[in-house]
Here is the input.
Amino acid sequence: MAIKQITVFVENRQGALVEITDTLAKERVNIRALSIAETNDFGILRLIVNNEGKAEATLQEKGYLIKVTEVVGVKIGDEPGELTSALSVLDKEGINMEYLYAFMARTEKHAYVVLRVEDNAHAEKALTDAGFKIVTLFDIEKL
Here is the structure.
């Protein structure tokens, strides 16, 4: 079951990011994972949140340009080589990795990773078959 990622196009100026995080905080939307990439004029902020619907509506209401994308969340062991093991599963299945980033929360023995691939269902099946646990919206809400 893919999870929803919100991509926000952010003006590259001082205070722009805090405006977004403050907007979400005021609506009690908790950020569970994030990634930001920048260019000269704007940044691309990717978010996994505990309430995607509320975050999407709030950001649109505030005039932000957003896009919702389905991504795969996978739980991996917090040991050297575990990320390689998960990525190798996808590689063997011919699944192209577009990008990845990690959740902000971790447990003592596990880390959580967000994967953007072309075929979420194929990636989830391959990872599950290889013994990895797929992260669900329920898991995100508990973090």
